[in-house]
Amino acid sequence: MFDFVFFQDLKQLSIVASKFPFEKIGVFVSSVDELNEVLNFSNSSDSIYFVPIMLIENADNNFFNKVRSLNCLIAVKVSSVQELSFSFKKDVDFIVPYFSLKNFFDPAALKKLNEFNIKVILLLSSISPNSFYASNFFRHSRFLFSLTSKFLTPVLFFSGADNPSQLRSQFDLSSLPCLFNFEKSLIKSFYLDFDSVLSNFSFNVKSVSKNGV
Amino acid sequence: MVVKKKIHVPLSLRGKKRYVVFKFVIGESSSQQFKKDLFDVAFSLFGVVGVSELRLELIDFENNKGIIRVANNKLSSLNSIFCFFNKDNCIVSSLLVSGSLKKARLFLKDSC
Questions:
Q1: CA distance A101 to chain B (A)
Q2: CA-based end-to-end distance of chain A
Q3: B-chain residues within 8 Å CB-CB of A22?
Q4: Among A90, A97, B72, B76, which is disulfide-ready with A175 (CB 3.0 to 4.6 Å)?
Q5: What is the pTM of this model?
Q6: Do B25 and A171 meet the contact criterion of CB atoms below 8 Å apart?
């Protein structure tokens, strides 16, 4: 079992995560200090393997160039067509869509995601408590999953927890695409895809310098 | 004297159901409070008509673990309700899905 969360108190997170139990957790970080902390904590804990993922916001080109030298997993927060095309150009590992009123996915975008082997992470925490925006989020994700069933681009829901109380089990999260009549066999294969990216990732702690970014 | 026969609803008309064993990973609640919170989340997610199709029923609840009955084809809806359940920072997670209440109760007994 694994999940994707935002950077937070890792000690508390590992205590709660061990109750599920999670084996791996991808942690979105936004600076090298946070990345170092995740790596050090991951090395010290035996039960859960934390994988740092650098999250780039606003298609920041300078920040991306600095981060690329660190050789870590990279995700881009996408809320417009421009940010989506930025992720294609830079060949990142994941994209994290934040749906506004307009949808920015189309068949051509899904084809490109497949071409560059980019996986899509939908975060439960990004769903606004406002019912209008929440229904909008589901409307766009329903469309995304209908495209996914045709183009087979890995797209899945994860918790995106800001604090340990927002963690959800993989079994419950995997049921969300089923609400859109998405095939269970595809969901299983997508979990394997995401798992293989986290498993194959190995990081040399010494290569990270605090002055790097 | 006319003997009235008891009319049973045929099995085919009752609809298939699943029994879901769940537990509170964090936090605790009482049976009544949990039922109220569960239906609150369900109504906000699926609306009145959607919830009527789920045929939700809280069967057992003890020591922050319990069994919920749900319509066979609406299992994913119940799991998604657990995803959005965030009352008092509680986390509810499903443990087992079973077709018979006996098996679900056995699992619940063993896990206690």
A1: 20
A2: 32
A3: none
A4: B76
A5: 0.88
A6: no
Radius of gyration of chain A (CA): 17
What would the pLDDT profile of A99-146 be if each residue is shown by its tens digit? 878 888 999 999 999 999 999 999 998 887 778 888 899 999 999 999
For residue A124, list chain B residues with Cβ-Cβ distance below 8 A. 83-84
| Amino acid letter, B27 | G
Q: Please answer whether residues B30 and B60 qualify as being in contact, where contact means their C-beta atoms are separated by less than 8 angstroms.
A: no
Mean pLDDT confidence for A49-64: 87
Structure-derived torsion over alpha carbons of residues B76, B81, B86, B92, reported in degrees to the nearest 10 = -60
Between chains, do B86 and A166 touch, taking CB under 8 Å as contact? yes
Chain pair A-B, CB pairs under 8 angstroms: 54
- 10 Å Cβ neighbour count for B10? 7
Lowest-pLDDT range of A60-69, A135-144, A185-194, B26-35: A60-69
- Alpha carbon of B76: minimum distance to chain A alpha carbons (Å): 5
DSSP per-residue string spanning A51-75? EEEEEE-TT-HHHHHHHHTTT-EEE
ipTM above 0.90, yes or no: no
DSSP at A168? -
Q: What is the pLDDT of residues B47-89, one digit of tens each?
A: 999 999 999 999 999 999 999 999 999 999 999 999 999 888 8
Task: Please give the residue of chain A at the shortest CA–CA distance from B27.
Answer: A165
Residue B21's Cβ-side half-sphere holds a number of Cα atoms within 13 Å equal to 19
B54: left (phi over 0), alpha (psi -120 to 50) or beta: alpha
